[in-house]
Amino acid sequence: MSGADFLLDPRLQADTQHVVSLPLCEVLLMKDARFAWLILVPRQAGCAEILDLPESARDLLWQEINQVAAVLREVVPCDKLNLGALGNIVRQLHVHVVARREGDAAWPGPVWGSGTATPYSNDELSSLAQGLRQRLSPLSLA
């Protein structure tokens, strides 16, 4: 299915702040100040798994994951980057890129299902999203 049929899952819409649109993916910032956590959502309707994407889109997805991960690590220093495409709750294909710090709220376990999200202040959310957007904009659809 084409990107024209794409609709963002309502849960992703509610839990995130839009950062930028890359050629394949929407880049979203999770609204949980405990972790610097980005989500890439390919604009491909009906995809639940990476293998559901056409080969060319899979290649582009990995390029965008690498680019977003590099920018996240630049903006938010971290000890480890976690990548995941679980989809157990939200079936729409999406890839998590999470900057982890030793001793963070879930360390060394996974962030998924760990505790209760801590909201960013409006200023913190805006500032982090803008910093990410500035570094990712040269790669965007803009």
From TrEMBL:
GO terms for molecular function: catalytic activity. Residues 38-107 form the HIT domain. InterPro entries: HIT-like, HIT-like_sf, HIT_Hint. Gene3D superfamilies: HIT-like. PROSITE patterns: HIT_2 (PS51084). Pfam families: HIT. This is HIT domain-containing protein. The lineage of its organism: Bacteria, Pseudomonadati, Pseudomonadota, Gammaproteobacteria, Lysobacterales.
